[in-house]
Amino acid sequence: MTNPNKGMQDNQEQLFKTLKLYIPDLWSAKAHSASFQNTRSGYLRDRISMLAIVWGILIVLWVPFDLIFLSGSLGVEIAISRVALTAYLFTIAKYNSRQTSLKKAQWCMTLMVIGLNLFYLYSMQVLDFPNGNSGIEYGYTLLPILHVAILTILPVTIKESLGLLFITAVTQLFVEFQADRLLTPENLADYWLQNVLAMMVIWSQLSKLYMLMRLYRQATLDPLTGVYNRRMLLQLANKSISHCENKGQPFSVLIFDIDKFKRINDTWGHGAGDKVLRGFADFMQSKIRKTDLFGRYGGEEFILCLPRCNSDMAEKIAERMLHYIRQLELPIGYADTKLQITTCIGISTYSSGDTLSSMIERADRALYECKDSGRDCSRFHPVGFQYHGNERRKAIA
Q: How distant is the alpha carbon of residue 301 from its chain centre?
């Protein structure tokens, strides 16, 4: 008979794990990995450009109404400012479409919001800060609401969203102060409604960001261990090799294979084996640099890519990792039982004309040598090295 308290405890642990995983990512972009920042920058770039173009067109289409309904030179002045704002938004859209980094996308987003608020401030000044609740002038007092609402389509973090909303809030408060209606009962009610709208906008933005992160993790991360899956690992490693090659920097690959993993599954069950894999992956992520790339290659094999590390550094890192791994005690979910593990580590380093595939192949052969040498060790294979031991892994785990 299942224990309902156990199920409730598992659900609470899963909730806390989800919150721990996503709250830092939802709060700030600093918590995002470099690959996710690249993914989000492309998504932001497309939406910012689309929003700038669409909003620019809508703004300039209102020019005839200004000329018809606003008296004298007021319509002309605001019409000119509308055309200038449209040109400004089109310029942002054009510049933004050529950018690839997240920081530049963030700047374009900020400049777009600043431009919209400057138009609002200028138009209110031209109209002498109208106080009426009807007529075409009243429509201009509603612009801050639109400026908040259009941000709904952007998948931004809480810090980014608050920064954009702050620009609009400060501009509106300044206008209200100039119009001498800052604390009127009507305006206080409007502020309340706008704050509710702002909360809904933030919720919508975070929902989009959360969904983008979920889809990204499903596409790029190993579902069991949470590290990069094979496809994403190889894709990022190829980019990293190209970057190191262009800058004349070394690059090394380490392949880890958990010793006698099949025996763990046969003795304790696959659930225990899964916990060992997760524990090993968590340990490795706590020991590597932010610039390193670590992922699951398949089964109990993991790959660690080390940019700016030559063969000597890679061998020292491998020996240090072997020492730490021997001291690991991994819980497997049975009472207080903890397992100790060891690994084999095959090492290769980039040489001129190398590819990621050839590096992995050499590291894999070095892994064979580790297994033939009794496991719990590391071996380095340089280019051209021929290992004369068994050419196939032993079937005995």
A: 26
pTM of the model: 0.75
Helices of type H across the chain: 4-27, 34-61, 63-69, 73-97, 102-126, 136-141, 143-149, 158-178, 185-220, 230-246, 261-268, 270-287, 311-326, 356-372
Question: Quick one: average pLDDT of 85-112?
Answer: 92
Query: CB atoms < 10 A from the CB of 265, how many?
Result: 17
The three-class DSSP label of residue 111 is helix
CB half-sphere exposure, 176, CA atoms < 13 A: 19
- Residue located via tokens 């051209």: 384
Q: Which two tokens stand for residue 262?
A: 């099949």
Distance of alpha carbon 56 from alpha carbon 90, whole angstroms: 7
102-126 vs 34-61: helix crossing angle, rounded to 10: 30
Say yes or no to pLDDT of 95 above 60.
yes
* Residue 350 identity (one-letter amino acid): Y
Tell me the pLDDT band of 185, cut-offs 50, 70 and 90: confident
Do residues 31 and 24 touch, judged by C-beta distance below 8 A?
A: yes
Q: What gap in Å lies between CA 147 and CA 85, rounded to an integer? A: 14
Which neighbouring-strand residues pair with 251? 307
User: pLDDT tens for residues 111-143?
Assistant: 999 999 999 999 999 998 887 666 788 889 889
Tokens representing residue 47 in the block: 């939406």
Predicted local confidence at residue 395, as pLDDT: 41
Distance CA 363, CA 382 (A): 9
Measured distance CA(295)–CA(235) in Å, rounded = 11
Q: Report in angstroms the alpha-carbon separations of 382 from 179, 294, 375.
A: 76, 21, 20
Output 100 or 352, whichever has higher pLDDT.
Answer: 352
Which tens digits make up the pLDDT trace of 220-248? 999 999 899 999 999 999 999 999 999 99
d(CA 175, CA 180): 9
What three-state secondary structure class fits 299? coil
